[in-house]
Amino acid sequence: MNAEKTYFDRIAEYGQLVIISGPSGVGKSTVINQYISEHPKACKCVTVTTRPQRSDEEDGEDHYFVTHEEFEQLIRSQQLLEYVYRNSNGYGTPAKAVENLRRAGRNVILDIDVIGAMKIRARCPDATLIFILPPSWEELERRVRLNPNRSESAIQAHMEAAKEEILCAGQYDYVLINDTVEKTVRRLGQIIHGNRYSKNSMKTFLSSYIESELAPQSDVADEILSI
Questions:
Q1: Domains along the chain?
Q2: For residues 223 and 116, what is the distance between their CA atoms, to the nearest angstrom?
Q3: Which of 142, 167, 186, 195 counts the most CB atoms within 10 A of its CB?
Q4: pTM of the full predicted structure?
Q5: pLDDT tens per residue, the chain (227 residues)?
């Protein structure tokens, strides 16, 4: 291989963006944390929030803590891939931070609700969306009831919200059933590994390959590159 053909290095240089959704209590955080612990190339992205910083938190490590005015400016300037307000506080995913991680070759795994996932898909069509289901409705309710601080009305509201989220699972690229953490983490790894060579992940490599290999050979390359 000619030493100048460095485009082969681009196969793995750009990380994937993986969005994980599912009802609260399904075990998303456990699955994501376990996967990241087993795959050093994978990571989360530090989010932006307007809520007060706690004594044990570090700015830039746990969250980027900003004022409400700064948060609104981030929204207006489209610097957040998605955002949501909870209890009058804003939470969002910074687009630049995600892009920097991906350019560094990191696979970014985000725990995002359904609405946020759809927003990210509109901004990042190469993102992979994965929905995690509980093994059964009864099992999800059992997990929700493990929290002793939830009232019966809160539990019912939680389950109703879970129903609405599950009805959106068909909008995702993949659906996983979290029967056990080990199996779900393994299946997640299979999806991410398989997507490494999908047309979206290989787009940059393919453009470089066509430009290097076909451009000197044919004018047709210009037409291909414009597709």
A1: 6-45+106-225 (3.40.50.300), 46-105 (3.30.63.10)
A2: 36
A3: 195
A4: 0.84
A5: 454 556 666 665 789 999 999 999 999 999 999 999 999 999 999 999 999 999 999 998 889 999 999 999 999 999 999 999 999 999 999 999 999 999 898 999 999 999 999 999 999 999 999 999 999 999 999 999 998 889 999 999 999 999 999 999 999 999 999 999 999 999 999 999 988 888 777 777 777 777 777 766 555 555 555 66
